[in-house]
Every structure is written in C-alpha cells, then in structure tokens.
Amino acid sequence: MSYRETILKLITEDGSTAFLQWLQKQPQILQPEILKTFECMIREIIPQEDLASGLYGDMEKLSRFNYDYEQAVIDEQLADVRLKMAVLARTDVLKKWTEKLLEYVNAER
User: Which residues are CB-neighbours of 94 under 8 A, at least 6 positions away?
Assistant: First the structure.
C-alpha cells in the first residue's frame, strides 16, 4: 500500500490521531517523505481560492515544518554516521597502539 493510500485510509476510517500514531511508528528516515505526501494531498484537496486566502499561511507553515523536520532528520543521520566513523577511528588507533605496545614489550624480553 502506498503512503497516499495508507494516509487516506487512516484519516478517513480511523481519524487523524491514528495517522499520527502510524507516522510515529515509521522509521524516522521515512517520516519526511510521508509528511510531504500528506502535504501534497492537502494541496490537491483544498481549492486554490482557499489557499489564496486564509489557508495559504497555514500551508506555508506546514511546508516549512516539513522542510525543517527533514533537515533535522538528515542532520541526525549524518551525526550518527560521524559518530560511528569516530568510534571506528578511535578503535583503529587503539588497536595500532596496542600492537606497538605489544611489539615493545615482546622486544624487551
């Protein structure tokens, strides 16, 4: 089932709370795409004249939220990768240090 179908089913059959609960259960990396799909669905449903009036500001806020959230998810994923790289580098340095120490200790015998 596509995101669009799932969103439509959840909102029409179970309500917005069910949609939000489902969204939170999805992997964080997929959530921005789901939110973009939701935003597109809203833009398709709401008449353009309504968007041109009072709802335009709300849609811009939603669009900005989606962008900011996506950037936050990307930043978090990048930080996670950087942390893993730092841990691997530290492990490599400790391994080399240990090897040199063992060479020194064995040479002293």
Answer: none
36 is in which domain, residue-wise?
3-108
Helix (H) or strand (E) holding 73: helix 55-108
Q: What is the pTM of this model?
A: 0.70
CA distance 20 to 85: 34
As a residue count, the chain comes to 109
Buried b (16+ CB within 10 A) or exposed e, 36-53: bebeeeeeeeeeeeebee
Token digits of residue 12: 């029409």
Exposed (0-12), middle (13-18) or buried (19+): which is 35, by Cβ within 10 Å?
buried
What does the alpha-carbon distance between residue 10 and residue 2 come to, in Å, rounded to a whole number?
12
Q: How many domains does the chain have?
A: 1
Per-residue pLDDT tens digits for 28-80: 999 999 999 999 998 888 777 666 666 667 788 889 999 999 999 999 999 99
